[in-house]
Amino acid sequence: MKKLMVLAAGLLQIPVIKKAREMGYYVIAVDDDPNAPGMAFADKAIDPGGLMNEEKLVAIAKEEQIDGVIHPCSEVAMNVMGRINDELHLCGISKEIAIRATNKYLMREAFEAYGAPSPKSILTKDEEDAWNTFCNEFDTNAILKPSRNSGSRGIAKVEKGISKEAFVSLYQRALNESRDHQVLIEQFIEGPEFSVEVIVWKGEPHVLAVTDKKTTEAPYFVELGHNQPSVYPIEIQEKLKAGAIAGCKALGLTYCAAHCELKVQNGEAYLMEIGARMGGDFISTELTHLSSGIDMVAATINVVLGVEPNLNPVEEKHGVCIRYFTPKPGRLISFTGFEPFSDPHIYQMELYHRPGDIIPEVKSSLDRSGHVIVIAPTAQEAICKADKIIEEVKFVTK
């Protein structure tokens, strides 16, 4: 029986842990929280004292004689995963590739060297350098991005004409969210945002789905929902797929899932970033199999274990949409209209807050208050139903 190590055992990792056991693999869940909800579903649970403790995790991997390691829907321990792959000669990305795929500056360099479509991007040294760079190097609006982070954390749009004081405030926010204390300034691409879900097997990217995204407005662009399949014209989808494939090859991805984020401006696709992992927000664990019929979770598990994945549809295809609840900030007093099982189109529905909790202003994906996943014959129908549910659930905050 092959052994799979799963780095992290939170809510987003539970589908992977469950699926791997369902597939007949022995699962070792590793999390620095012994009460992480996914620990209970694994064959063996280990608290390593920190997911960034490379030496300890490599030692555990060797002691357990694992056949593969996966860090689904997260980037925190990607470098650790890469080192485990290197030292145990496993399938999966190397540490070198993991570093490239989690550092937005190195990622941009790789895109440019390969010729993959991406916006202008400059790494800054400090707030003064960033301000001067913005004023002198950009004649358009720009985006401030932490060099290392995910989930919209620290990202902010800066418009031409912004005051230095306001710019510095947004810069400091991005800096505080960056794991390597570096910030990028990038050309702002005006247009809709997408992701492309990919399985890479033996260095060849295979596109499973194109995801349409809905986000908040500037400055934070927090994701409020996604739908599959895309409702955009086929020619736009083909450009998105081509951009994602080029980006995966530019990063040198070999055996992994990939979540490729792009935007479209004037009919052309631009790569924002690529995660060499399954996407969060239930995109890879739920939306992709519901829309494409392809089990992306099973495929990813097999890939990191060196087993050729099944990329053929194995279940019924649906239109699917996820939408997030974002109540007015304040203390949650009450809510009404939350009846998750009253509509047969509701696949999943959950609130993250209860009366008495503080509802934060939505500045990152961590600030959302719940979600609903809806399935329907078409994506457009799923979108309409999901939006209606979001409107019908009423929150009272004070």
TrEMBL record:
Keyword Transport applies: no
Alphabetized PROSITE patterns for the sequence: ATP_GRASP
Any GO MF annotation of the entry: ligase activity
Residue ranges occupied by any ATP-grasp domain in the UniProt entry: 108-305
Alphabetically ordered keywords of this record: ATP-binding, Ligase, Nucleotide-binding
InterPro entries registered for this protein in UniProt: ATP-dep_AA_Ligase, ATP-grasp, ATP_grasp_subdomain_1, LAL_C2, PreATP-grasp_dom_sf
Record-linked PANTHER family: ATP-GRASP ENZYME FSQD, FUMIPYRROLE BIOSYNTHESIS PROTEIN C
Name listed for the protein in its UniProt record: Biotin carboxylase
Biological source species: Xylanibacter ruminicola (Prevotella ruminicola)
